[in-house]
Amino acid sequence: MKHKEISKFSLFGLIILILCYLISVWNVIIVNKSNIKNKKTLTIAHWQLELGVKEGLNKLITEYAKLHPNIIIEQIRIPQKRYGQWRLIQLVGENPPDMMQTHSYNLTLLPHFYIPITKHLKDPNPYNENDHDIANTPWRDTFKDGLENAYISEYLDYFTVGLSQFNYRCVLNKSLYQRILNKKTPPKDFDELINNCKMINLYVENENKKIRKYNSLHNTNRTLIVIDPIGASRHQVERLDGRISTIFTADKRKELDFNYDGQLSPFEMMKALLTGDFTLYDSKYKASREMFKELTQYFTTGFMSNDRMNTNFRFVQGRSVITMIGSYDINSFLQQIKEQPFGDIILKIEGQYVENAEEAKKKLLQLALNKQSVEIEIKRNNNIKRITIKPKRGKNILSIYGFNIDDINNNNKTTVPIISFVKMYSPAYDAGFQERKRFETIFFEFPFPNKNNEKYGQLIAGNALEFNNTAFSFGISKTSKNKEIAIDFLKFCTARKNNEKFNKSIKWLPVIKRSKTADVLKIFKPNYNGFVGNLNSVFGRKESLTKQNQLFWSYISGDLTYNEYANKFTNQLAKSLPLNLLKEKQENTKLYKAYMQKNYYLSRVIFANNNNYDNQKKLSGAWDAIYQASTKNPRIKALLQPLLDKTPKNKFAELFVKKYNAIKPKN
Amino acid sequence: MIKPNIKITIIICCFNILFNAFSDPSELIKNAWNDYELGDLSNALQYFIKAEKEVLTQGATNKVFCEILTGQAFCYQYKKFDLTTESDYFKAITLYEKALKRNPKEKKIIIFLNNMINECNYRISEITYDEELRQDVNNNWNEIIQNKTNNTILIQDTLLSKVLLQSDDYLSQQCLDNALLLEDYIKQNNNTNERSSMLLTPAMAHYLSDMWFHRNDYKKTFNWIVKYCEFGPTSHKWRNFGYFMAANIAEKRLFDKELAIKYYSILAQEKGFYEHAYFAEQKIKELSK
Hints:
A: five-stranded mixed sheet; B: mainly alpha
């Protein structure tokens, strides 16, 4: 039998196949030798792409790996905008990372996809063993906020643990602030802030007048300058609005809290509106709205359509003097400022070296008297340039040349003379000088009005509390095969010394009691001396709030006066609140859910073979939830029925009761 | 053409039967409770039904059987929340009765199942406005409550069911009678040394403080909210809530400055943890003047 010869082509294929096989065998041997197959991999997903977070977390991972060499931890970083969708796909696909960043209030996801960690929080964190003051403290109580916000009442459990805290402060562009206002310190009170804002607007207006004049005289098209006194977006506005409302109305809210439980329910607000104990013309409420409106006049135009990043970017570019920033942005923010152009360094004037701003100014003033043009040698982005400038008549450097010179610290810690400012309509601008864009910053607390304020002082309740919950929180996936490792890693990350080190490296606020904060963040430490709660968002359900927003922004934009706003909103509330009331009375889903849960824990107590104290405790909590839900109607009845039976004599009550009687079920 | 191979078919069938025969009922029950806890009652019901079939073929203790039937009944009872119909409740009752017929040995299971039937019957009486049925349920509840040999948690559970299912109007006589029943129970059992036996008293005290508040009896409101703090709280998060109410009621309704300062002082120590700690601090200064 004649055998068919193997073709060269087939032989080549066979050789490739054998080679691949040998490489695979080699790989397997390598893997076995390096013990990778004995290692467990823990995956962590988060959306914090801010500068330094990845590196900070990696440092923690490296430290953890020293203690647990058989564990590999990998980070998965997903942009925040895509994170929600991505996470859902991972969770539904039952192949999620072991640990995922999550919000503690995400009720629909937490109990379905994450394990409860309550039992772990009751034991001390073993990684704190050398910190004697907290060595025996339950893990939960080592957190600054006691993880108050991480407890999910509906499920009677904790699901997340966080690594950082966040807070907000104001920041100002020192160069711009100093140039426009000739001041070195941030505003001490609200009046000074408003005056500063007015001065900034006036400065911009005057400068633009000069530019317009220059343009028309020289037939040029120089761009007008845009500098916002306060750079703001929806992000900043939401935070400011709540705090402003609190400093005015926190005490009024307590006054209207009829049952003294520390909360103002929509029904207590209804009672107050019906009795006339509260109206939208209330002096404190009105002042809070007016003050907010006063402030918005100095915000970036169209601030509600701006986003946070855009506002930060405008500030970095010197287009706003003050803005409000979250501590989580600090690292990226300061880095962006550092990356701005350093400015033109003056090396020589008319061929002679100059050492500092004083010398440069002196020389330039002398030359301006005699010469028609001056040659200045500058260093810009490591390039040497010679620029010729024609001085004008004037009293000082700025009026003669159109620029300012200041001594600035160079990287090697010596000072150099820098062109710190160039006027738009000046010989310096015509000659092509570029001003310094890099600037120093000052962080400060927003100067809310206090009791000494002439206009608002008498209506102020006090400071607003900064109660910052633990954030950058992680939950552990139910399908994870490394649950115990994940818990242990969370304990490691929240041991005081590790948490301190981690947060210091990324310039965030640590979460563990008595831990040290990075110097730059000391100003961000939350202020616990303040009141909580305000009269925003207490006017009922979503529909009422949507209408409230529409009318409020019409008031802010100037389309409505305060009285028009209050009048329209009162009428709107009189129509929508009776509907809210009926819906609330008829809605019992929460109650049935509470019974469903109670019976679950009761059945656990009855049928489980071991007498589990956790189930008994949860049974007790579930009954408390039933109590809350099942006494809603008797509470509403006791609170509002007398007012519905005998209508108080005010316009709101009359409209409310009329509407309520028209829509209530006839039986 | 492929001819069907009888031998292979038989082998596959046997494997299938064997595989199904060894489905673990305890795993099915665990999955069912897991889905139930997460609110996926349709899935939970499927698991419970499957588990029932399994234990019928494999056999199980009466306790396990009762647990499976209870799970199924729960699903009918709560699947539609407040839209649950009379027939759903009847289905649930049938399942509880079926469980009772298995003669569970433990008395607590019998009381538990009867209690569940009572809850269903009470809901039916609400739907059908059947006063007679409601009275029967009340009698059954009273019987369980009065028998002191019963499991204490079940007595407390029954008491709370009776009181909270019938608390439409704080100002009604029925609400007052029920409240007195709760008060009696707590007073009689307050001296017990076993803390765990008074497990459900925080919810009772909470209810009583709220009811007396709306009946304008602030002394009783204060006493019961303080009791709530003593017995409870039901979770770590609520530890300050009762003290806040106690301090406010002492100050604003009882006009007892000293008492108010006592409770505000507890709250003031919680600065950084409790949102009203600064308020409490200010109150102490104001009341100490």
